[in-house]
Each structure stands twice: as C-alpha cells, then as structure tokens.
Design brief:
Helices cover 60% and strands 2% of the residues. The protein is mainly α. The termini are far apart.
Length: 230
C-alpha cells in the first residue's frame, strides 16, 4: 500500500470518527435544546412556502393535541421501542401487492428521526439512517421529549411547523388552549400538510378529524397514554 493511499485512509478514518462523535453529541444536546433548523424547514423556505414556527415546551401544549397525534399517528407510541413491527409487516405486504399506492408505517419516533436529522424522500440509505437515529433517540431521550420535539417540528400546513404556529394560524390561540376538536383537525392534516389545512375545513380533514376524535376517546383511558397527558 502506497504512502499517499495510507495517508488518505488515515484522514478518512479520522473524519469518520469526528462525524460519529459530532452526531452523537448533537443527539445528546437535543435532549434539552430545540433543533435550530431542519432540512425539511430549509426546503420549505427554498420552495417558497416560508417558515413559520415557534417552539414551546410540552407543558404549553394542550393534552388534547398530545392525545390527537398519538391517536392519529401512533397509538402504540408509549409502549414500543421506536418501531411498530406489526404495522411495518402489514405495510410491506400492502406495498408488495400495490406498489403504486405505497403505505407507510412510521411511528412518531421514526418521524422525529426523519424530521430532525434527515431529509424527505424514499431511499434505502435514508431509511437505514432513520432506523439508526430512531434507535438513538429512543435510547437517550424520554418518550415525553420525543413527543415534545415531534409536536414542535412536524409540518402542519404549508410552511407551518409545530403546533404553536399551527394553532395561531388556524385558531388564533396558543397551543396550550386547543380544544379537542381543534386538536383533531390539526392532527388530520399530518398525512399531507402541503395539500390539506385545518382551516378552511375540507371534506377529507372533517372526516379524518371525526375518526381521530373517536380514537382519542378510546385511547385516553390507557394508563401509559394518560401518563403523557399530565
């Protein structure tokens, strides 16, 4: 092996070690501070949608909103280790049968990993990194922190990120005061926030919000879910 190639390998190794240390430090830091910016938020700015956000603590987010996103996005959130394996298996079977109508099975934890650390899109590289970051935040963050970050970084309308900005935009009130129906309407937008809005109310959002409220009624009696609503 030639000396120049050895030097290249040494530099590449050192760079890799540095990147590993930096990303680990960033994950630990975000356990206490809010993400300064995400690739999705930057993309929103470059695409002309703008960026409206206002991070708030979980204590300043209505329990109705916390319950609504668990009811709509991830009903097993308090109990799983970051992955809902049953839903993943169902999604894989569905996507094999209908490759033109792909169904996802991402948990709230996976969505946080994607929204905070990665970019939007579908590729095996991104999915592999998503698995890694999901494992890391499930290991080093609490469930409450994961839910808090999710509610602050999820896109909830064109250029609208986080529940505080969404609540102010749609209902002219802070997220802390969101009523049950309002929370369900915001949660109903999550599958496609660039297409749907909580107001004006479309037929899709109205139907989905009604379904979410029924799920909220069933879910709120679960002790593990209730612990995240205090």
């Amino acid at each position: 092996m030639s000396p120049p190639f050895k030097k290249f390998l040494r530099k590449a190794r050192n760079l890799f070690i540095l990147l590993v240390v930096l990303q680990f430090a960033y994950i630990i830091l975000l356990k206490w501070i809010d993400p300064p910016i995400t690739l999705t938020q930057l993309g929103s700015v470059f695409q002309g949608y703008g960026l409206s956000r206002d991070y708030v603590s979980i204590k300043n987010i209505s329990p109705n909103m916390r319950l609504a996103v668990m009811a709509s996005e991830d009903q097993l959130f308090p109990d799983h280790d970051g992955f809902d394996w049953t839903s993943i298996k169902k999604a894989l079977k569905h996507n094999k049968r209908k490759p033109t109508r792909v169904r996802g099975a991402s948990t709230i934890s996976q969505q946080v990993a994607k929204n905070v650390f990665l970019w939007q899109g579908r590729s095996w590289v991104r999915k592999g990194l998503e698995v890694y970051f999901t494992f890391m935040i499930e290991t080093f963050w609490s469930k409450e922190r994961i839910l808090e970050v999710y509610l602050n970084v999820a896109e909830m309308g064109k250029g609208i990120f986080g529940v505080e900005a969404a609540s102010q935009k749609y209902f002219k009130r802070p997220a802390k005061k969101l009523a049950r129906g309002e929370a369900a309407q915001i949660a109903a937008v999550l599958p496609n926030p660039k297409k749907y809005a909580a107001r004006p109310l479309s037929n899709f959002v109205q139907r989905r919000a009604a379904w979410i409220q029924r799920q909220m009624n069933n879910l709120e009696t679960d002790a593990d879910v209730a612990a995240l609503l205090d």
